[in-house]
Amino acid sequence: MSNYSYLTQIKTILKNPTVLLVFRVFVSGLLLFFLFKLAVVEKIAQAFSHIAPAYLFLFFMLYFLGACLQALRWKYLLQAWDIQQKFGTLFRWIMTGQFFNNFFPGGLGGDAFRWYAGSRDTDKLENVAATVFYERVLSYGALVTLGLISLTLRADFSRDRLFWFLLGGIFLALVSLFAILSLPVLGNLTTRIIAHFPRLQKTDITNWLESFRFRVRQPLMLLGILAISFSIQFLDVLSYQVIANALGLPVKLSDLFLFVPLLYLAVLLPITLNGIGVRETVFVFFSAWWGISQPDAVAFSLTVFTLNLAGSLIGGPMYWFGRRPADNVKSS
To answer: Is the sign of the CA dihedral 205, 207, 211, 215 positive or negative?
Structure first.
């Protein structure tokens, strides 16, 4: 009984937002300390010094082009859910979401902000949430598919067996999820199951399930959204290649198509702020696969993080100057 009470107290403490924040900062710091101790700081600084301005320009061009495509895809998804919004407004929300991702684990801050901003002026809270959710699913689905295509072109099953297992399993999970939310038969089955539970009927779960059914039925719109999703993820992986070339690292684009999906899956774990520490650990783990040293892998990771952070900082002023008059009054 005393053990149960003790565990209950620990669970209550861990639910405290301040405790969670301190824990995540501690884990991030611990991982970074280990990685910096493992690496040589001088070599990391030397790697940073090799970056030419042309590579920086190319990276940021890819970064903002990807953000524009995200806004365009979100616009089409919102239209499918009967919500109209201007492209410029969506781009501002995308960039602001990138900015807020720096302060939350797993990129949840950006999704939460876009959900709030998108539903603030409408009564379609569930619909906006569905579009943000499908953006995640489409992005990761396109990224994993590109990885599987890369595996097929490499045609080296013995060497890539682990990647086939991981990426193939993720792909099947995403396809199953998409089928459950898209096929009317499965949706009706879920509704009938909920009908047997009176308590669930008293909640809004039925409305949420109805909103989360995939509504893009027009073939041309669906193809357009898929094409945009693949373009976004290709540009994202290409930006990693640009950074590797800037640092003079012999990392192949085909390897990055396998690495980036697993990296993003690891960063989604809500144990550190913005994936700090987890990201560097994954880079170090793959350093032997790429044939580079661990200090170079840490420099690669920190360069990716720093440049993405620099690009996302634009979302801060966009949020401040894009606030509505009512928001300004509340904060004053």
So the answer is: positive
pLDDT of residue 191 exceeding 70, the answer is: no
Per the domain annotation, does 124 fall within a domain? yes
Virtual torsion, Cα 235, 237, 240, 246, nearest 10 deg: -60
| Cα dihedral value 156, 158, 160, 165, nearest 10 | 130
* Containing structural domain, residue 131: 54-322
| pLDDT at residue 68 is higher than 70 | yes
Six-digit token pair at 131?
């579009």
What's the pTM value of the predicted model, to 2 decimals? 0.78
11 domain residue, yes or no: no
What pLDDT, on the 0 to 100 scale, is given for residue 160? Answer: 80
Give the Cα separation of 79 and 84 in Å (integer): 6
Number of domains in the chain: 1
Q: Please give the average per-residue pLDDT across 301-307, as a whole number.
A: 85
Residue 194 predicted with pLDDT over 70? no
Cβ–Cβ under 8 Å, residues 71 and 91:
yes
Residue ranges of alpha helices (H) inside the chain are 2-14, 17-38, 41-48, 53-80, 87-100, 108-119, 125-154, 161-182, 184-194, 198-201, 205-211, 219-246, 253-267, 278-290, 294-312, 315-321, 325-331
Q: Classify residue 293: in a domain, yes or no.
A: yes
99 within some domain: yes
